[in-house]
Amino acid sequence: MKTLTSRLLCAAWLATACSAAVAQESATFAMRSLTPQAALRAAQTTLQACTAKGFQVAVSVLDRTGTPLVMLRERLAGMHTPETAGGKAYTAIAFKLDTLTLSRATQADQGLSGLRHLPRVVAVGGGRIIEAGGTLVGAIGVSGAPGGEADDACARAGIAAIQTDLDF
Known about the structure:
It is a single chain. By secondary structure, the protein is α+β, with helices and mostly antiparallel strands. A hairpin with a 2-residue loop joins strand 3 (127-132) and strand 4 (135-143). The protein has helices at residues 2-26, 36-52, 81-95, 99-105, 148-167, and strands at residues 58-63, 68-73, 127-132, 135-143. Strands 2-1-4-3 form a 4-stranded antiparallel β-sheet. Helices cover 50% and strands 16% of the residues. The longest helix is centred in the N-terminal third of the chain and has 25 residues, at 2-26.
């Protein structure tokens, strides 16, 4: 009886210790996010791509939580462009979708048109998520080129400049 009781107490203690370890592990998590250095390279490449086409733009890069890492603005870009670029990047993160696709899906005659009325949503092309190995690590937004498709092309150039580093 004494041996059985000792074994039961030992088993109960082990179960408690193991469950505490499991509970402790599940209370935290690790996540990948874009570094400020990678964000700056993406923003600089984006700005260069747009400038080479004669576009005066602003570029905003956010980390995966929507926190700004970099904002660059060409000298003659409109005063609205930094905020709009940030809004496009935020929108891309929020919906995990490029804003050019979202702009089409939220047209007035579409079922998702109400999304355009949410705070901070900018459903115009030029916002793209940045992924590393299929994991969202940030987003880039561009504003100031003549149309969302041109903004989007510049954003893609910026992401391409860091994609190799992200895939490793």
